Backbone:
């Protein structure tokens, strides 16, 4: 079981206490169908591709909820609760470590790391993989933030 599934289970139990186990089974069944299309992602050197598994489970949950007749606002609310619970720091150390990259962004070591990540993400080792535009370099960061390069 992937570590992110506990967040899905926790929120579904809160919103659907009687039907949560059936909904999890239905979500797993949708996920098994979707996961065949993204089987390459776990072996991909691209870090964005490796997150496709998490996204596929979200898609499976959305299919489950829409199949049960839930409206858009309810699906959105449940998905936002899952994401918020998933990214919330569990303790003070983890909270500090999550804020640290933002504080170190404008240092020479961060520029090297960003350049290396850009190099890794700009290659597409699989035809179904995902390639983002590009990460802005430090001299283009202010232009990128202001939207003038679009």
Residues:
């Amino acid at each position: 079981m992937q570590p992110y599934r506990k967040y899905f289970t926790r929120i579904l139990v809160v919103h659907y206490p009687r039907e949560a186990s059936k909904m999890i089974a239905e979500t797993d069944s949708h996920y098994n169908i979707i996961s065949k299309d993204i089987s390459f992602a776990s072996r991909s050197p691209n870090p964005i591709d490796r997150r496709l598994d998490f996204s596929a489970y979200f898609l499976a949950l959305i299919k489950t909820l829409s199949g049960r007749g839930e409206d858009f606002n309810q699906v959105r609310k449940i998905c936002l609760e899952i994401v918020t619970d998933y990214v919330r720091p569990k303790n003070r150390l983890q909270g500090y470590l999550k804020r640290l990259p933002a504080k170190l962004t404008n240092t020479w070591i961060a520029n090297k790391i960003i350049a290396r990540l850009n190099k890794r993400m700009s290659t597409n080792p699989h035809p179904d993989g995902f390639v983002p535009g590009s990460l802005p370099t430090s001299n283009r960061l202010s232009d990128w933030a202001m939207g003038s390069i679009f």
